[in-house]
Amino acid sequence: MEPLRNYFKDIAIHNILDVGTGNGGFLHTLQNTFPGAKITGIDPNTESLEIARQNFPDVTFLEMEAENLKFEDDSFDVVSISMALHHLPKVKKGLKEMKRVVKPDGYIIINETISDHLNPAQEVHKMYHHFRSHIDRMLGRFHRKTFTKDAILQILKETEVPVQFFFEHRRNVNLIEDEADLELRIDKMKQMLEKIKGHPEHDALRLQVDEFRTKAMEHGLQAATNLVIVGRKKIFT
Ligand SMILES: C[S@@+](CC[C@H](N)C(=O)[O-])C[C@H]1O[C@@H](n2cnc3c(N)ncnc32)[C@H](O)[C@@H]1O
C-alpha cells in the first residue's frame, strides 16, 4: 500500500503487533512497509495461526484475543488490525487494549473493509460477505456486517484514538474471470447453506444465492473498498 509506505518512509519502526492476524493476510503489507521490523501476530484461532507459522517463519505467533492482550503497556511502535475489527465481539475493548500496548509515540493502523463508497461490483462482494457473516452468526460465531466508513471513525473517536491520516484502498480487479470462477463462489455459498439446513431462515438465504448469481453476472465481483487509518495513542501537534 503505497500511501502507507510513503507515510512511514522516514519513521523508525522496530516492533509491530498485528492483532487478528489470522493466516497472515496483512503481514506482507507490514513487511513491505516496515522492512526489518520484528513482527508478532496474535489471533484466537489455532488453525489459522498454524497456517501463518508455515508462511511467515520470521514472525512470532501467539494465541490471544484482542480484548485481552498479554503484553505490558507501551510495548510496540505499531499495533495493527486488518479485516478483523468486525470480528471482535468487543470492538472498543479491543481498540483500548491496542492503545494500551502501543508506545506513547507509537501508531495504530486499521485496515478494514467498509460497507459504503462501493461500486456495483463491490456491492456484489458485500452481498457475498454479508451472506457469510449471517451464516456465521447463525452457527454461533461472532461476525458482524461490515461497518460504514463513518461508523469506524466514530468508534475511534469514542475510544480516543486520534486519527492522523486515512485513505480508501480499492483494488479494481474483477474476481470472477469466467463462469468457472462464478460456479466456485456459488458452490462455497451452497456449502455454507448446508450447515444451516432445516433452519427457518434457510430458504430465504437460498434465494440470496440466486440473487448473487444474477448480480455477479451483471456487474462482476470486486473486493469492497478498505478504509486504511493511521491513528495515534495521543494527539501530537
Ligand atoms: C478476516 S480474518 C483477517 C485476517 C488477517 N488479519 C487479514 O487481514 O487477512 C479475521 C480474523 O479475526 C480473528 N478474530 C476473531 N475474533 C477475534 C478476537 N476476539 N481477537 C482477535 N482476533 C479475532 C479471526 O480468528 C480471524 O483470523
Automatic annotation (TrEMBL):
The keyword Kinase does not apply. The keyword Hydrolase does not apply. Keywords: Methyltransferase, Transferase. GO terms for molecular function: S-adenosylmethionine-dependent methyltransferase activity. GO terms for biological process: methylation. This is Class I SAM-dependent methyltransferase. It comes from the Bacteria.
